[in-house]
Amino acid sequence: MRWSAGRLALLGFGVALVGVGAVVGLTSIPQRQWPGIVLWMAGGVAVHDAVLAPIAVLLGLVVLPRVRPAWRPALRAGALGAGVLAIFAVVIVGASSRRRNDSVVPVAPTTSLALAGAALLLAVLVGAVVGSLAPRRPAEPDPDLLPRETD
Amino acid sequence: MSRVTDLRRLARPPDQDDFASTVHDPRVVARVGVLLASAIVVAFLTGLISHLHQNPTPLLPLPPGPTWGYRVTQGLHVAAGLAAIPLLLAKLYAAYPALFARPRLRSPLHAVERGSVAVLVASAIFQVSTGLLNTFQWYPWSFSFVRVHFAVAWVLVGSIAVHVAVKLPVIVEAFRRPLDEPSEPPEEGTTRRGFLGGVAVTVLGLTALTVGQTVPALSAAAILSPRQAGNGPQGLPVNRTARAAGVEATATDPAWRLSLVGPARTVRLTRADLEALPQVTVVLPIACVEGWSTTATWEGVRVRDLVALADGSVDQDVRIVSLQQGGSYRQSVLPASFVQHPDSLLALRLGGEDLDLDHGYPARLIAPDRPGVLQTKWVDRIEVLA
User: Fold this and answer.
1) What is the 3-state secondary structure (H, E, C) of A78-142?
2) How many structural domains are present in chain B?
């Protein structure tokens, strides 16, 4: 696809928005805070690329081929849910030990994470059962094997 | 596939072609990308509204209505931001093989494209992770969250627009091709639609377990949210306690007087004086920038009546100053349109009781369609601005 006027405008719009962010950042954020920002920016990418993504790839490579095909979509979604829950677990446990008053993290982390984990497990089981019961799509018939119409 | 084969594949750096699953198909990547971009754009636009509330400009004045406006926009802001977490993980997972495409750099333009993707990924992970921590009031960093969140939001949305412009041919082609087309090579059990369904269920599940901090009907299910509607003193969560604000002594001092600073004179009122003035009862939500909100019944004196007592004009903005000696929110400016609104009160009671000390006793501001941090607590004086 060629670079149409609309596509170029979208590109320019995006570059302009990034520029606004850069100007806002450079004019409103003290220089001494920049190292911390860069560290968090790079750290997030590093955690994803070096930890989360390889774990996901390993699961896909090692675990999924060894389970029934009908269960794979539910397990893949379950892995996504488990990843999200793991992130929340870190935040909830960390925040609960630092909370400023009783209305922050009002549910005990053990209770909330156990309930959320149970809900996730239930959803995966339901998904696996539904996947097992779903009718398999019939294979496309080979046109060469179809009976030929005769006059 | 044997374990030996698995180990051999793991022993060398992967290539894009090693990721043969149909979940890495552009049709999946594009659809998850559209959902993620939608969530981020919603968070960006609602974030701009919150920014305008806290940094008002005459060019874009915000009205004091609807009364639930900020509750909805900020609730959406946080809900969309949280929904972006699984969407971002799914997008990165689906698009991950592109990281190993060879040759690494085909041309200067390709280098620019990969650089823009790096900015996009870094800013997206940064925004959702620091945003999540902020909702839990956990700040393991040394920078100003509000300023940085605002600046990086522009970078993130801009880099999404750049990415869409660069990838537009792939995106258009991905939406043109049927989603249910059999994968090549055949992959038993895994479908593009199945993967997208799993992502949708995860997003909806996370939303169900968090949105109860602002949707009362789902409050009991909000086990992963930092707050629950109705949980706190007098049924309201608290952001900053009187102790943390350092006002326990001054707020309970019998010598407390509210100062009404008008253009020509200052009036001082005791709490008993305030209770003797015409009282108004309003039902208004208090909605926090961190996404939680609760509707409550407030009772007190109209701000416009207090301005009139100091011979001030309701056409002027007023400054509400707290007993707090420091902090970013020790004072707030109430625009004239909010001063004139009949629901803008200096609240003395909450739910039929005197305000709890952590909710701003002896008096606090409550006004419609306004961030909680600007509903100044432990009010010391009200100044009519010239």
Assistant:
1) HHHHHHHHHHHHHHHHHHHCCCCCCCCCCCCHHHHHHHHHHHHHHHHHHHHHHHHHCCCCCCCCC
2) 2
